[in-house]
C-alpha cells in the first residue's frame, strides 16, 4: 500500500489528465506545418493556480494576460496554448490577440475569462494567425484519456525532438494524490529563440498562495538550474493547477506531509527539467553537474550552472574528452567563493582532480564514460556544506546547423 | 607634420620593436610541433610597467611571478613568453618552473630577476617542458627589426589563425611618441582553454602607476569587451612597458596631452581586441555591437556584451540571418535597465526595429549585409545617455569541431 511514508511512486502511464478533474486536448490548425499547434488543459472545477514567468524584461503578451487572470482570484480552469507563434514583440495588436484568445476559450468553455491562462511559443515578432486559432478553438476535443494528453503534449512543441511528460502518486491524509506535468524545451519553428513551457496538474487540495510558495521553491532548484545556451526566452512559463479533488486536507507548510508534497513537485519539475535539457537544440546527451563543499547551496548551484553552461565543457562532452582544465576554469570564473587549491572533480565514477591537482586516471575509461547519453560531473570545492545541481546538454554541430540555417 | 592636435597616425609597418628601446625575439624549441613557441621582448632601459590579469580565481603560476616582479619597483626590462603549455594547475612544481624561467631569462640578459615578467599559454595541467625552454633561452636572438617582431608575434600563438600586431604614433611635448602592441587570442594546442595575451610597448615617458591607471581605463573598454565563448582563461594577461626614450615630460592626468596618450592606448588595445575577436575559434566574422541610450556607459557595455555573447545571435550572424528577435531577447536578459517598448535596432545601415516594433525592411538586403566579414549591430535603448561597444565573433561548425575533437 502506498503511504506518504512509503514515498512517491512514478506512474509510467500517467499524464496531465491522470490527476482527478483534468481533461486535455490538442489539434493541428495550420500555424505549424505538420504537428499539433493548439492545445488546452481544462479542469472541471476552479483549480488553485500558481505560475512563474521568464525573468527577461521583454515579455510576450500572453504572460501579461495570464498574470491578470491569476491575480483575479488565484483560480484557473483552463490554459489555452499555441505553438508556432510566440506573440512576442507584437505590440498593441499582440496584446489584443492574447485577450481575444482568452475570451474565445472562456466562451467555448462557458467559464469566466479570468479563469483562463494563455501561453504561446514560436517565432517572435510576427502577427498571430488568429484566423487559424480562433475558429478552431471550438474543435478542441477535451478528453481525459492518454490520447488526449499526448495530443496536448505535441501541441506545445516547437522543434523539440521529443514530447515531455511525467506523472507521480503519493498518499497524503489517507488519500491518493496524483501529480503530472507536461513541458516543452528549447526549439523553434523558424530559427528564433526557444521557449520553456511547463504545465503541472495535481488533484491535491492546496490554496493558490501555498502552491505558489512550493512552485517557487522547487523551480529555483529545477527549471532555473537548466541551461541550453544561456539565452532566456520572452515567453517562459511554468504553470501549476491543483483541483483539490483528491480530498486531502489543504496543504500548508504546517501540514505533516507538506514535505512529501513539495518533494513530489520537486521530482515532477526535475523530471521535466532534465527532459528539456536532454532535448536541447542539437543535443546528444544530458549533462548533470553536482557540486558539494560550497560556501552555501546558492553558490553550489552557481558553480554547477557555470560548469554546465560553459561552451568549452559542452563541446568537450560532445567530443567525450575528459578535459578537466575546462571544468576547473569554469569553476574559477563562476563568481563563487572558491579555493584554487582544494578542488576535487570526477566524471562519473572516475576522479580526475584532487585538491586541484590531476590524478593518474585512465583517459580511455573516462572517455568511454563520456560516450554515454547521460553524463554526471561531480565537483567538491571542499570549502563548506553547500550542495547543488544543474543540468544541460552538449554543444554539437547540430546546434549550429539548427540556429544558423536561414529562416525560410 | 604630426602633432597631438593633428591626432594619432597608424604605422602599417610598425611593430612592438618600433618604439625606442625595444628588441624582440622568437624561436621554435619543440614545445609546439611547428610554430615558434618561445619569445622575448626586451627593453634596453628599465621600463615603467603595468599589467592586468585574468579575473579567474584559478590563476596560472606565471601570473604570480609577474605580479611579484612588477610589485618590486614597477619596472620591467623583459618579458619571457612560451606557448604550448599554460603552466596552470601544475602545483608547486609549476610555481618553481615559472621562477626558474624568470631566473634563466634574467641570467641570459644580466639583469635583476624582478625586472623579468613571465607569461605562458597552452595546455593546462601538464608539467612544463623545462628541458626545451631553459637551454634554448640563450639562443633567443634579440633584434629590433620587423623580422624579430614577427618571430615574437608567432611565438605567443596557440591555434590562432593570424598574428596580431598594431603600431601608432603621435606627438606629445614636440617629440614623437610611438606605441605598439602584440596579442594572441583564443586558441589552443590541444583542445583546452584559450588564453588572451597582449603586450604593449611605448617609448613614452610615464611612471608605472600612471601607466597602470591608463591601462585599466582602456582595458575595461577594449579587452574586457570582447567575448569568444564566455569562458575566462587562467592565464590572461595584458602587459604594458614604457621605455621613456621619446623624451616627453612624464605623462600624468595633469599633462595637457594625457588624453592623447590614453586615446592612443585605447586605439592600440581596441585594435588588438578586435583582432582577437575576429580570430576567435572557428570564427568567420567580427561582430561589433554598439549600444546607445543606456542609463549609463556601464549598462551600455553590459547590453553590448550580452548581445555579442549570445549563442543565438552568434549563430544568426554565421547564418547571415537578420533575426532581431534574438537581439531583443538578449537585451532583455542583460540585466540592464531596459524599457521594453523603446528599443531601436539596426544591422549595419538597415534599421529593423523602432520602439521595439519591427519595421518593414528588405530581408535580402539585411542578409546580404550580414554576409560581410565585419558586422555592426547598433542598438538604441532610448533610456539615457550611456554608450558602449563590445566585440565578438560568429559561432560556427568549426568552433564545435575545434573544441570537440579529442586531444591527441
Write the SSE topology:
The structure is a homodimer of 408-residue chains.
Chain A: E1 9-10, E2 22-27, E3 38-53, H1 61-73, E4 75-85, H2 91-109, E5 116-123, H3 130-136, H4 146-155, E6 164-172, E7 175-184, E8 197-202, H5 208-221, E9 226-227, E10 237-242, H6 258-278, E11 286-294, H7 297-309, H8 311-318, H9 324-332, E12 344-347, E13 350-354, E14 357-358, H10 363-370, E15 374-380, E16 386-393, H11 397-404
Parallel strand pairs in A: 4-5, 8-10, 9-16, 11-15
Antiparallel strand pairs in A: 1-6, 2-3, 3-4, 3-10, 6-7, 7-8, 11-16, 12-13, 12-15, 13-14
Quick recap:
By secondary structure, chain A is of the alpha+beta class. Helix content of chain A is 32%, strand content 27%. In chain A, a hairpin with a 2-residue loop joins strand 12 and strand 13 (350-354).
Structure in words:
- The structure is a homodimer of 408-residue chains.
- The first copy, chain A, has 408 residues and is an alpha+beta fold.
- Chain A folds into two domains: 9-276, 4-Layer Sandwich (L-amino peptidase D-ALA esterase/amidase); 286-404, Ubiquitin-like (UB roll), CATH 3.10.20.340.
- Helix content of chain A is 32%, strand content 27%.
- Chain A is built from eleven helices and 16 strands.
- Chain A has helices at 61-73, 91-109, 130-136, 146-155, 208-221, 258-278, 297-309, 311-318, 324-332, 363-370, 397-404; strands at 9-10, 22-27, 38-53, 75-85, 116-123, 164-172, 175-184, 197-202, 226-227, 237-242, 286-294, 344-347, 350-354, 357-358, 374-380, 386-393.
- In chain A, the strands form two sheets. In chain A, strands 1, 2, 3, 4, 5, 6, 7, 8 and 10 form a nine-stranded mixed beta sheet that branches. A seven-stranded mixed beta sheet of chain A has the order 9-16-11-15-12-13-14.
- In chain A, strand 13 and strand 14 form a beta hairpin.
- Chain A is globular, with a radius of gyration of 22 Å.
- The relative contact order of chain A is 0.14.
- Mean pLDDT of chain A is 90; it is low at 188-193.
- The interface between A and B is large, with 57 and 58 residues.
Amino acid at each position: 500500500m502506498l503511504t506518504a511514508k512509503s514515498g512517491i511512486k512514478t506512474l509510467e502511464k500517467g499524464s496531465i489528465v491522470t490527476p482527478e478533474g483534468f481533461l486535455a486536448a490538442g489539434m493541428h490548425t495550420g500555424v505549424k506545418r505538420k504537428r499539433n499547434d493548439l492545445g488546452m488543459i481544462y479542469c472541471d472545477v476552479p483549480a488553485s493556480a500558481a505560475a512563474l514567468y521568464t525573468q527577461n524584461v521583454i515579455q510576450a503578451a500572453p504572460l501579461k494576460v495570464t498574470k491578470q487572470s491569476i491575480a483575479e482570484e488565484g483560480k484557473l480552469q483552463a490554459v489555452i496554448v499555441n505553438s508556432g507563434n510566440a506573440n512576442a514583440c507584437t505590440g498593441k495588436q499582440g496584446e489584443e490577440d492574447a485577450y481575444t484568445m482568452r475570451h474565445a476559450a472562456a466562451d467555448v468553455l462557458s467559464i469566466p475569462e479570468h479563469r483562463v491562462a494563455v501561453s504561446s511559443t514560436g517565432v517572435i515578432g510576427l502577427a498571430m494567425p488568429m484566423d487559424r486559432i480562433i475558429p478552431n478553438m471550438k474543435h478542441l476535443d477535451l478528453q481525459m484519456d492518454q490520447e488526449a494528453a499526448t495530443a496536448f503534449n505535441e501541441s506545445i512543441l516547437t522543434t523539440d525532438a521529443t514530447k515531455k511528460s511525467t506523472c507521480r502518486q503519493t498518499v497524503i491524509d489517507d488519500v491518493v494524490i496524483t501529480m503530472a506535468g507536461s513541458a516543452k524545451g528549447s526549439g523553434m519553428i523558424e530559427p528564433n529563440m526557444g521557449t520553456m513551457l511547463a504545465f503541472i496538474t495535481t488533484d491535491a487540495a492546496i490554496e493558490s498562495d501555498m502552491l505558489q510558495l512550493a512552485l517557487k521553491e522547487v523551480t529555483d532548484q529545477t527549471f532555473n538550474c537548466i541551461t541550453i545556451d544561456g539565452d532566456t526566452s520572452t515567453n517562459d512559463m511554468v504553470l501549476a493547477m491543483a483541483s483539490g479533488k483528491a480530498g486531502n486536507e489543504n496543504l500548508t507548510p504546517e501540514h505533516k506531509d507538506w514535505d512529501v508534497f513539495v518533494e513530489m513537485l520537486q521530482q515532477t519539475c526535475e523530471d521535466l527539467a532534465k527532459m528539456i535539457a536532454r532535448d536541447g537544440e542539437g543535443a546528444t546527451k544530458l549533462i548533470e553537474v553536482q557540486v558539494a563543499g560550497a560556501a552555501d547551496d546558492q553558490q553550489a548551484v552557481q558553480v554547477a550552472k557555470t560548469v554546465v553552461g560553459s561552451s568549452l565543457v559542452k563541446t568537450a562532452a560532445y567530443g567525450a574528452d575528459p578535459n578537466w582544465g575546462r571544468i576547473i576554469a569554469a569553476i574559477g570564473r563562476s563568481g563563487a567563493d572558491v579555493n584554487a587549491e582544494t578542488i576535487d572533480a570526477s566524471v562519473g565514477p572516475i576522479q580526475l582532480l584532487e585538491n586541484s591537482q590531476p590524478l593518474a586516471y585512465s583517459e580511455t575509461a573516462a572517455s568511454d564514460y563520456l560516450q554515454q547519453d547521460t553524463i554526471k560531473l561531480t565537483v567538491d570545492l571542499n570549502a563548506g556544506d553547500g550542495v547543488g545541481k544543474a543540468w544541460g546538454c552538449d554543444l554539437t554541430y547540430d546546434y549550429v546547423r539548427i540556429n544558423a540555417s536561414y529562416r525560410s
